[in-house]
Amino acid sequence: FFQAEDGIRDYKVTGVQTCALPIFAPLEDRWETALSAALGRRIDPKALAVMVARQSARYRGEAVPLAAGDGLAARTLFWFPRDLGKVALPVAELVAADALPQRPLRVLDLGAGVGATALGVVRALRGLREINHVTAIDRDPATLALLRRVLDAATEASLLPRLPELVTEARDLA
User: Fold this and answer.
1) DSSP character for 9?
2) How far from 50 is each of 39, 63, 73, 79, 102, CA to CA, in Å?
3) How far apart are CA 4 and CA 36, in angstroms?
4) Residues 6 or more apart from 110 whose CB is under 8 A from it?
5) 98: left (phi over 0), alpha (psi -120 to 50) or beta
């Protein structure tokens, strides 16, 4: 990546044309407000740290008490901001290689959770390609409802473009 003064980085792949992409830096401060709005509550940072520790313990298979809403809060306020940008580089490589079709795109997110991957793709392609449909599948209907609220809050805050269609489906893929 080569950063220019206008907030754009040129992404170069050997043997492929240069492509200008927005900087995928830390999230804008407005994300914290949008995510809290989607949750419907503000959480003290110390309480969030406890929730994250307990959710991490659950991921390791430990039986620790954690209210369902607190697990969602940890996933939304701690992991979502860290995961949202993870798709930026692979998406940048696809754009730089001109490997994406020149038509409106559809995104399918299996095991979507709160939607960091799907919404990360939408964020990474903002202004570069049109996305007209996102399908998010997860086994937890509450998580999918939260994904929709995250998208709505991020759209209201002008952090993501308005999507013509978001379909969520609660299904266990195991």
Assistant:
1) E
2) 17, 15, 11, 14, 46
3) 33
4) 137, 173
5) left
What is the spatial distance between Cα 102 and Cα 55, in angstroms, rounded to a whole number?
Answer: 41
pTM for the full predicted model? 0.82
Token reading at 105: 């795109």
Q: Residue 25 has what DSSP assignment? A: -
142-151 pLDDT per residue, tens: 999 999 999 9
- Give me 5's structure tokens: 């003064």
Tokens of 168: 């969520």
Helices (H), the chain: 30-39, 45-59, 68-74, 80-83, 88-96, 116-125, 141-156
Token pair, residue 135, equals: 């399908």
> 160-169: per-residue pLDDT in tens?
999 999 999 9
